[in-house]
Specification:
Helix content: 25-40%
Largest sheet: 9 strands, mixed
Oligomer: single chain
CATH topology of the largest domain: FAD/NAD(P)-binding domain
CATH superfamily of the largest domain: FAD/NAD(P)-binding domain
Radius of gyration: 21 Å
Number of strands: 20
Number of helices: 10
Order of helices and strands: EHEEHEEHEHEEHEEEEHEEEEEHHHEEEH
Length: 401
């Protein structure tokens, strides 16, 4: 039986996989391309479960992949949305210092923002802070005007429509079961049948390490999932937040802390926290998968990570269990908020790559092998930077075509 063939195979129908497919088709018109997505629909996990922020690029170390790709990706994303009728808004955000210890950290964030090419970033005193967000409290703040909001599910759907227009194919309910690299091609066996390609690109998100190992790669990282839980402000209290309000992030921890985001479709979201998830696609506190739990427990990096960050982890866990505790974290930024103002929102799971040493991989991580490119770590701002990441991955993949 003849196995169907394509020039390029992609595993993963999230925003990075779709952006990569789009970049390949734009770079090489007429290319035959197939995207394999295991779910019934696209953007089912990280892409469709984030807070919808278009990041400006304030936080990232100058020169890092995150910094470079966020800057270019934001420009490309906004242009794409304008051309394809996807609603977005450049509304700006505040990063607020609420303690004396946080004020000096604003200096470093401001320096990074300027080094990363951001326009209009400026320091605010208490009175100027209140002009932007009348109900916020803090000792000082940074205003970042280039931050925006969008619905990434709609962005992903628009990417998929453009892929189809350019001749690519997206197959859903096509979970990769086996990968057989060869000298001239790579064969992927999936629940939708086998397909053979001259190059394979894997953007598998929460399953990225498993797909890479399935393809024969020897990795020094593994995915450890962290669930982020959101709350919504009650409609009658949504006026307390005009746009986006963030705390000063802890430089030792790769999460941004509880913050407020006005959604493009309406409403204000608070969160997320960051708690260890016992299932890679576990969006509730009771979610548990035996295989996922075994992988977490047997990865040496998990325990080394826990020994470094257990205090922060316990605090995050308590905020997950206690609405009052979560409300207090919110009140650090907007003091009028109390527990009764919060209604349960959604949840997402972050695919956090953790090294064997216990280090949390902070930057984008892309590895190559014979006729293969694997994205092993694509944390925030991956959605913002998706088109730029897609261009980079496509450049690497095209060497085999």
């Amino acid at each position: 039986m003849t196995v169907p063939r394509a020039d390029a195979l992609l595993i993963g129908g999230g925003i990075v996989g779709l952006a990569t497919a789009l970049a390949l088709l734009r770079a090489r018109p007429g290319l035959s391309l197939v995207v394999l997505e295991k779910e019934e629909g696209l953007a089912a996990h990280q892409t469709g479960r984030n807070s919808g922020v278009i990041h400006a690029g304030l936080y990232y170390k100058p020169g890092s992949l995150k910094a470079v790709m966020c800057a270019r990706g934001r420009t490309l994303l906004e242009r794409f949305c304008e051309e394809h009728g996807v609603a977005f808004e450049r509304c700006g955000k505040l990063v607020v210092a609420t303690t004396d210890a946080e004020v000096p950290r604003l200096d470093e964030l401001e320096r990074r923002g300027h080094a990363n090419g951001l326009s209009g970033v400026r320091r605010l005193g208490v009175e100027e802070l209140r002009e932007h967000e009348p109900h916020a409290a803090g000792l000082a703040a940074l205003f970042v005007p280039e931050t925006g909001i969008v619905d990434y599910r709609r962005v992903a759907a628009a990417y998929a429509r453009e892929i189809a227009r350019l001749g690519g194919e997206v197959r859903t309910k096509a979970r990769a079961l086996a990968i057989r690299p060869g000298d001239a091609t790579v064969v992927v066996e999936s629940t939708a049948g086998e397909v053979e390609g001259r190059v394979l690109v894997a953007c598998a998100g929460l399953g990225s390490d498993r797909v890479a190992r399935m393809a024969g790669l020897d990795l020094d990282v593994a995915i450890v999932p962290f669930r982020g839980e959101y709350w919504m402000l009650a409609p009658e209290r949504a006026h307390l937040v005009k746009n986006l309000i963030y705390p000063v992030p802890d430089p030792a921890f790769p999460f941004l802390g509880v913050h407020f985001t006005r959604r493009i479709g309406g409403g204000v979201e608070a969160g997320p926290n960051a708690v260890l998830a016992l299932e890679r696609e576990g969006y509730t506190r009771t979610s548990l998968d035996v295989r996922d739990l075994w992988d977490i427990a047997t990865w040496p990096g998990t325990w080394r990570m826990a020994s470094r960050h257990w205090r922060a982890g316990m605090a995050e866990q308590w905020r997950s269990l206690s609405r009052a505790s979560f409300a207090r974290a919110c009140a650090a930024l907007v003091p009028e908020i109390v527990a009764a103002d919060l209604a349960p929102g959604g949840a997402g799971v972050r695919a956090q790559a953790v090294a064997r040493s216990g280090a949390l991989v902070d930057d984008f991580a892309i590895v190559e092998a014979e006729r293969m490119v694997h994205v092993l770590n694509a944390p925030s701002p991956a959605a913002t930077a998706s088109l730029a990441i897609g261009e980079e991955i496509a450049t690497r993949a095209l060497r085999w075509l």
